[in-house]
Amino acid sequence: MASERQIAASRRNARKSTGPRSGAGRKRASRNAYRHGLTLSITSTAAFAKQLDKLARKIAGNTDDAITLDCALQIAQAELELARVRRAKVGLIERASAFGELDPPRLTVAQMIRLIDAFDRGRPIVPPIDASATMPSQEPDRSAEAVRRVLPELRQLDRYERRAAAQRERAVRNLYDRRKSWNNL
């Protein structure tokens, strides 16, 4: 049983981890799932449904057992989900390698006003630094720099990859246990 100090510490920690409190922070957090589309179920598209069925049949082999087919379907779904996450990661790295950054630089209102004022006064406007020009030109330095630049996004995608890998592991274990118990009969 937890002591009074542990309970108090847990309550303090819970108060700290309630997520963003400002309206802007809550809005930003609510849109996190829309960034890369990985929260959508893989079965929601027709193209993946065909792939899913084909892979599940390959995993299940020549069986008509509904439970075995269901286990194989779960394995196939997790495997395709894992492949989708990995494609998203590769896409991030390739985009950063090609363009030097993920998104174009955004100017704040104050920066925009300064640029307009400088233009009105006839002062030369310093163009923003081209991110692709600052990328190393030779491999493997270019790829390493691209990975470094997208590391925060890759870490966010890692959660989806771990979830898909755990689902696949669970489904494989279920199929293995099913076949093991089937052989013992």
Shape: extended
Q: Percent of residues in helical segments? A: 55-70%
Q: What is the distance, rounded to the nearest whole angstrom, between the alpha carbons of the first and last residues?
A: 43 Å
**Which spans of ≥5 residues are poorly predicted at pLDDT below 50?**
none
Order of helices and strands: HHHHHH
Number of helices: 6
CA gyration radius, whole angstroms: 25 Å
Structural class label: mainly alpha
- Quick check: average pLDDT? 77
Portion in strands: under 5%
Largest sheet: none
> How many E-type strands?
0
In short:
With 185 residues, this protein is mainly α. The protein is built from 6 helices and no strands.
Structure in words:
The protein contains 6 helices and no strands. It has 185 residues and is mostly helical. The two termini are 43 Å apart. It has helices at residues 4-16, 23-30, 46-60, 66-99, 109-120, 141-183.
Main attributes?
single chain, 185 residues, mainly alpha, 0% strand
Q: Mind sketching the topology for me?
A:
Layout: H1 4-16, H2 23-30, H3 46-60, H4 66-99, H5 109-120, H6 141-183
